[in-house]
Amino acid sequence: MASETTGRNPPWTRDEIILALELYKQLKGAWPREGDSKVRALSEMLNRFWHAQGHEGSTLRNENGVKMKLMNLRAHDPLYAAKAGLKAGNRIEREVWDSFAGDFERLTGTAHAIRCAIDAGFNLGVKTADRELLEPGEVEASEGGLLTRMHHLRERSHKIIQTKKNDVLRRKGRLACEACGFDFGEKYGVRGEGFIECHHMKPLADLTETTITKLGDLALLCANCHRMIHAQRPWLTLEELVVLLKDV
Ligand SMILES: [Zn+2]
Ligand SMILES: [Zn+2]
């Protein structure tokens, strides 16, 4: 950790840019005044986020840094970009803008969930653990790394997965993919029996540290279908995956 306290500030994450976009929208195009309390609050929150991961420094997400990020976001705003001749650079900013700028409710809901995750200390170890939780070919959700991590931790909790499988087995007598019907036991015999993955269906913005996973929140999916949900942003819902399967 000590080595991370020196050197350049870490690049802004998707989570942070979502929080910055929320502030940008709250300001409704007005430029924050010197010492603006909302800018200070965001700066303090992001500092907590990074301090927990061993990053320090007077320039780390200070108020000026937050304002610069607001300026960067202006470059994606059609109301300003052309007028000011601003060049839109950052790919993640563009993606966050495209996903959330037109849907204030989704933006505030997601930002709220991210703030709760930071307050709950859910950021600890997120930097490396995030990548460890992603399977090859999977991408971080539009909602950012913290909520992605929360999603994966939930659907990989062995106890709830076993309870879900037992429940389906008892009711249906077999474990089949809810999207395509694939049955590992049928295809691979004894080796495949009891094998299936669980996907957590709750929208990521509804996940908090204290949310209890119910059996109905989980869908049984084969590895291929599950991977396809997480392979691109935005992640698909189960319904969208089923439609996609019908269309090809
Ligand atoms: Zn499937
Ligand atoms: Zn999943």
Instruction: Give the averaged pLDDT, no decimals.
Output: 89
Which molecules are bound besides the chains? zinc ion
Strand arrangement across the biggest beta sheet = 1-2
User: Counting H and I runs of at least 4 residues, what is the number of helices?
Assistant: 12
Distance between the termini: 48 Å
Gyration radius over CA: 21 Å
- Biggest sheet layout: 2 strands, antiparallel
Assess the beta-strand content as a share of residues.
Answer: under 5%
Measured as a percent range, the helix fraction is 40-55%
Low-confidence stretches: 1-6
Shape: elongated
- Number of spatially distinct domains: 2
Secondary-structure content class: mainly alpha
- Strands, total number: 2
Helix and strand succession? HHHHHHHHHHEEHH
Keywords: Endonuclease, Hydrolase, Nuclease
InterPro entries: HNH (IPR002711), HNH_nuc (IPR003615)
Organism: Acetobacter pasteurianus NBRC 3278
Domain HNH: 177-231
